[in-house]
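Here is a typical protein record:
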Amino acid sequence: MKICVYCASSARIDRAFFDATIEMAADFAKNGVEVVYGGGAVGLMGQLADTILENGGKIKGIMPQFMNEVEWAHKDVTDFEFTQTMHERKARFLEGIDGVVALAGGTGTLEELLEAITLKRLGQFTKPIIILNTNGYYDPLKQMLERCIDEQFLEEKHLKMWTFVDTPLEVLEAIKTAPEWNQGAINFTAIKESDE
């Protein structure tokens, strides 16, 4: 199984987010899950890579060349791919994987997560999307997505596109049991004014 993990590069965050990353990454390594991530050496990205490597797991970094030029790349990650742009990086993240996991993060993580959800809505990406809601960090996003449905920007069936979990050890099971999704999702993307 190969999983793409979106997460923060900031190191100034609450210790609880690091602890959750360690627990999930150790569980991934123990279960033979290969990880694809942003390639960073600090923050949750660095912790993710450190933990996977310490536990004998496999991890691949994908990073735009301009980030590597300012030495953001993790020195101990040997499987690395450098892209020309951030757009290319995001596209590569989603190729050949079995699911996406979002840990806590800022605008970059949110952008990556929402792009994956958008692509899933359009049937261009069909794999599970799991959001690890450590300390209720993603409660406002959960409320916003539900508001999208309440206000009919999305349909009720779109709730199947993502799964929120509260603890790191729930992530793998959530990936395995996520509702199926297929490319036909584009057929119900448009919200009709009324059934005529």
Remarks:
- The chain has a mean pLDDT of 93.
